[in-house]
Specification:
This protein is α/β, with parallel strands linked by helices. It has a domain of 112 residues: DsrEFH-like (Hypothetical Protein Ychn, Chain: A). The protein contains six helices and five strands. The chain has a five-stranded parallel β-sheet. Strand 2, helix 3 and strand 3 form a beta-alpha-beta unit. Helix 2 packs parallel to helix 3. The longest helix has 18 residues.
Length: 173
């Protein structure tokens, strides 16, 4: 056999192996895609975050959900994050509050638990003007569900770049 034929044969044998060399083993095949439209659905976000800066993640959850579902959106806040809504803390949480105010301008309602607010040492007049104080957070969520709102518990865990936590060499520069 000539050298040229031997090289061609070697290339044909190596090509299929090298074409799959950088693919991870996958005994289950590839995911299907079903990018369907959603019906109009009203949602209630049950928010109780330890760190007020986690409201930045909530911003994106609310934006993405409201765009996909197109219904009314209510955010019920009843945790430590409520201190970010206090007017006295605006300088500290300006970025996050500007985002929440932007959502409010787009029609998102912000309702705050009176019990949590009082326990934190605040009064209604201490909060930004786009917030409505309601008697209690959990009953507010339940009442909205009774009106047909669908419950969303937006855990403040962003997924951006989680792929690269275990494989930093894959991260695009």
């Amino acid at each position: 056999m000539s050298l040229t034929k031997s090289l061609m044969l070697a290339c044909l044998l190596i090509l299929p192996v090298s074409a799959f060399a950088d693919q991870a083993p996958s005994p289950y095949g590839k995911a299907k895609t079903n990018m369907h439209e959603y019906a109009k659905i009203d949602t209630v976000f049950d928010v109780n975050y330890e760190d007020p800066n986690q409201l930045n993640t909530l911003y994106f959850f609310v934006r993405n959900t409201s765009r996909a579902l197109g219904g009314k959106v209510v955010v019920v806040t009843h945790g430590p994050e409520l201190r970010a809504f206090a007017r006295e803390n605006y300088d500290r949480y300006q970025g996050v509050m500007d985002r929440m105010a932007e959502l409010a301008k787009e029609g998102v309602e912000f309702r705050m638990c009176n019990n949590a607010m009082k326990a934190a040492g605040f009064e209604a007049e201490d909060m930004h003007g786009f917030v409505t104080i309601v008697p209690a957070g959990f009953p507010e969520v339940a009442a909205l569900q009774a009106q047909g709102y669908q419950y969303v518990n937006p855990l403040p865990l962003p997924v951006r770049d989680v792929r690269y936590l275990e494989r930093p060499e894959l991260k695009k520069q």
